[in-house]
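Entry 14: structure prediction run for Late embryogenesis abundant protein LEA-2 subgroup domain-containing protein. Input pasted below.
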Amino acid sequence: MSLIHVKSPEHCAKKGLSIDKRYKKLFYAFFTFLFSILSIGFIIYFLLHPSKPEFSLKEADIYQLNLFTNPQLVNSSIQLTLLSKNPNQKVGIYYDELLVHASYKGQQITVSTSLPPFYQNHEGSNLLTASLTGNGVPVASSFRYEVIRDTTVGKMVMNLKVNGRLRWKVGTWVSRKYRFNVNCAAIMPFGPSIPSGPLSSKQGTQCTTTV
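Run finished. Output tokens:
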């Protein structure tokens, strides 16, 4: 009578499905290294508490703002200058993917214009200029009423907005990208009694920035 050898499932697992302990050690070592790098980055970030950048509107000129009906479309041409400041003493800022547009009464009246990316050193400042245009931009039916009302009041409020992404830099460490938004309000005289020429705002208005 021949003997029948039956291997238990536990025996099979040990022989064919075992994981090499060396791979486990490599995995744990890599995970520990990655966790240490991330921890150092977060510690640096929270210890330094980087302050969000500051923007102010230096000048805004409206060269064209024409409304057409049936359908309602707007042609616009605006030139603006912004001052960007980095208030941090030990943190630099990379600005990426900057887009600027103008809105009036909550409606975008120009296409988004791209600004070149740049780096801002500790407590540095930069002047940013942009030419915004909109040709045949559709607007809501209430837009004409808002324009007439502001003409009667004698002033208008134009919003210049910047959307983009930034990265903090501390030494050689650079953070991931963070989305930020800037909103600047330009108050301008507006009405039939205004002399011909561009509508201008030169108030040095402080803008709101969210990160």
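Notes: Residues 77 and 133 are 4 Å apart (CA to CA). Will compare against the previous run tomorrow.
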